[in-house]
TrEMBL record:
Family, as annotated: Belongs to the cation transport ATPase (P-type) (TC 3.A.3) family. Type IB subfamily.
SUPFAM superfamilies: Calcium ATPase, transduction domain A, Calcium ATPase, transmembrane domain M, HAD-like
Residue segments, region Disordered: 628-671
Subcellular localization(s) per the UniProt record: Cell membrane
Protein name: Heavy metal translocating P-type ATPase
Length: 671
């Protein structure tokens, strides 16, 4: 009984009952002993299929909305009144089939959201008082230890506090390859353990998890309207009354009620109504499956127009993890002594470039005992530390010049001029150089560089292939380093030495030039530029609630190739929208002409309409397939792209801490 009630409330119940009545009517109409029963069943079919349409039209009228359902209601009721029962039944039945197809398609295109909801875990195994307790996932407390075993879902967002394992994070990042997890790594609710055993300290539970935020964002995005869809709503608001007036006018002029009613039916732009939303929902659903969260239809449509992309350098085009690349000896110390002295001075520094120097020294087994006796950070220049009673400076040329003036060092001008030459050559090669001096005397230069990401050049190439005219790198780094990275990546323009407000001005400048600009950044120092751009894109947004909620597009996986994939998806979606609109308008125009000039009946017209609806639906559903251009990566993605001589080094060509190159004074920069 329950199954019958469920079926009766399903989307196919009305078309099935109506269609069955039509078939029964056609059969009984051939039985001579049952006169009139065929008409009764045909009217029944019209009533079954037409009642939901009439009710919907009435509710729309009470809200002062004249919709497509009103056209069908008037046409069907009029057809019954004049005795055209077959036409009334056929129109309402086909309209019901169209609605069922639309509902089924929208449900299909929302499959990404359904899959996300399906992966949400129901229970969690929590360690309480030394015992394993199974509780509903929503009842896990923040800070509790959750046990994740092989084959189970992670029930919370959290940090691994013990154990090792592998997680399938496809539901969050779109990445199908399992990710190894160990102590300190972040995990997300809804991901699946494919091996190992993890102890996870809960940091996000229930609605505070990344998965919950993604589901919320996809729900909002699929319901949000694009500009074209909003226009179509306004269009139907005047189109429907116009068709009613046209049909009324034709009826009065020709005294042909059937012709007037046929015009009402034929004028229903069913395919036009569904053409936009089904495309948007399919496009956003496809993106969600691939780890690309698009905020809504409006942003999807704007993304299709992007012809300029502004990229932050550090953390976007580069890994954001500088490493030591060069140690240049310019004094009477050997290479290890220069590196050790620099590391000891940097031990008390909070400068971000201190870490790669310290890591390189540790990797080579150089001792860095304790902290300096005194550390004096010099903003914008470097650091000065007191070591064994001497002042050791590690920083730019201006800092060392000040130290020389203070120490009144004799015969040091030559040292500084040689250091300046080394600094210039290292900077031109994409390194960030730091001069090392003791008591004003130059001893050497150490240099660090941020590694260019392997997929950065391929990302730029794909952006150009997707129709982006200009790719601009915006960075606060110095000009030579920025130029070297820009040349390695292949961007069209480099703007260096920028403060956050300068990045904003650069984005505004691109917009003034007529570009539709997408800004890609980390959402912190790039926030003003992200807000100013036509489309703001947050990279690697998994676990970053602010990025998911505020970015127009959030790329869940820290994968640069997702950016051109998002642009390509937006363009394909908008192209599909346009194709659907063209199909719908041509169908309506052809049918109206057919009615006015003869040959097209009400039933034939409605049948053609439903075929056009089916064409529009099938065309939109193509977006649900993974585009083949996003499946295959070039060989460069696997072996690492080639780089120009000025590029920051890759992991393969950058020397490790144990093999940092040493240059003699006669040959200050190694090749």
């Amino acid at each position: 009984m329950h199954q019958i009630q469920t079926w009766l409330h399903g989307r196919w119940a009305v078309p099935t009952l109506s269609g069955s009545a039509i078939l029964a009517s056609l059969v009984l109409s051939r039985v001579p002993d049952l006169p009139g029963w065929g008409d009764v069943l045909m009217i029944l079919a019209a009533v079954v299929a037409g009642t939901p349409v009439v009710l919907k039209a009435w509710r729309a009228l009470t809200a002062r909305v004249v919709g497509i359902d009103l056209l069908v209601s008037i046409a069907a009721i009029g057809a019954v009144i004049i005795g055209n029962y077959w036409e009334a039944a056929a129109v309402t039945f086909l309209f019901a089939v169209g609605h069922a197809l639309e509902a089924a398609t929208l449900n299909k295109t929302r499959s990404a959201l359904a899959e996300l909801v399906a992966v949400a875990p129901d229970v969690a195994v929590v360690l309480r008082d030394g015992e394993q307790v199974e509780v509903p996932a929503a009842q896990v407390g923040t800070g509790e230890t959750v046990l994740v075993k092989n084959g189970t879902k992670v029930p919370v967002d959290g940090t691994v506090s013990g154990g090792t394992g592998a997680l399938d994070e496809a539901s969050i990042t779109g990445e199908s390859i399992p990710v190894e997890k160990s102590a300190g790594d972040q995990v997300f609710a809804g991901t699946i353990a494919t091996g190992g055993f993890l102890q996870v300290t809960a940091t996000g539970v229930g609605a505070d998890t990344t998965l919950a935020r993604i589901i919320h964002r996809v729900e909002e995005a699929q319901d949000a309207k694009a500009r074209t869809q909003a226009f179509m709503d306004r269009f139907s608001a005047w189109y429907t009354p116009a068709i009613i007036v046209l049909a009324l006018g034709v009826g009065l002029l020709t005294q042909d009620v059937v012709l007037a009613l046929t015009l009402l039916v034929i004028g229903c732009p069913g395919a036009l109504v569904i053409s936009i939303p089904v495309s948007i929902v399919a496009g956003i659903g496809r993106g969600a499956k691939d780890g690309i969260l698009i905020k809504g239809g409006e942003f999807l449509e704007t993304s299709a127009k992007i012809d300029a992309v502004a990229l932050d350098k550090t953390g976007t085009l580069t890994e954001g993890r500088p490493r030591l690349t060069d140690v240049v000896v310019l004094g009477d110390l050997d290479r290890d002594e220069v590196l050790q002295l620099a590391a000891r001075a940097e031990a008390g520094s909070e400068h971000p470039l201190a870490r790669p120097v310290l890591e390189a020294a540790a990797a080579e087994g150089l001792q860095v005992p304790g902290l300096p006796e005194h550390t004096e950070p010099v903003p914008g220049k470097g650091v000065v530390a007191t070591l064994d009673g001497s002042r050791v400076a590690v920083g730019n040329l201006a800092l060392v010049a000040e130290e020389q003036d203070a120490a009144a060092t004799d015969a040091s001008g030559g040292d500084l001029s040689r250091a300046a030459q080394v600094v210039e050559e290292l900077a031109a090669a994409g390194r960030t150089p730091m001069v090392v001096a003791r008591d004003g005397r130059v001893l050497g230069v150490v240099a660090v560089a941020d590694r260019v990401r392997d997929d950065a050049p391929e990302m730029v190439r794909r952006l150009h292939a997707a129709g982006v005219k200009k790719v601009v790198m915006l960075t606060g780094d110095i000009e030579p380093v920025a130029r070297a990275v820009g040349a390695a990546v292949g961007v069209d323009e480099v703007r260096a030495g920028l403060l956050p407000e300068d990045k904003l001005e650069s984005v505004e400048d691109l917009r003034r030039q007529g570009y539709v600009v997408a800004m890609v950044g980390d959402g912190v120092n790039d926030a003003p530029a992200l807000a100013t751009a036509d489309i703001g894109v947050a990279m690697g947004a998994a676990g970053t609630g602010v990025a998911i909620e505020t970015a127009d597009i959030a790329l869940m996986k820290d994968d640069l190739l997702k950016l051109p994939e998002a642009v390509s998806l937006a363009r394909r979606t908008v192209n599909t929208m346009r194709q659907n609109i063209a199909v719908a308008l041509l169908t309506v125009a052809a049918l109206l002409a057919g009615v006015l000039f003869g040959g097209v009946t009400m039933a034939i017209g409605m049948l053609v309409h439903e075929v056009s609806v089916l064409v529009v639906i099938v065309n939109a559903m193509r977006l649900l397939r993974r585009h083949r251009g996003t499946d295959v990566r070039s060989q460069d993605d696997h072996r690492g792209p080639g780089r120009s001589a000025g590029a920051a080094p890759s992991e393969d060509d950058a020397p490790s801490a144990g093999t940092v190159r040493q240059a003699q004074a006669s040959n200050p920069v190694s090749a």
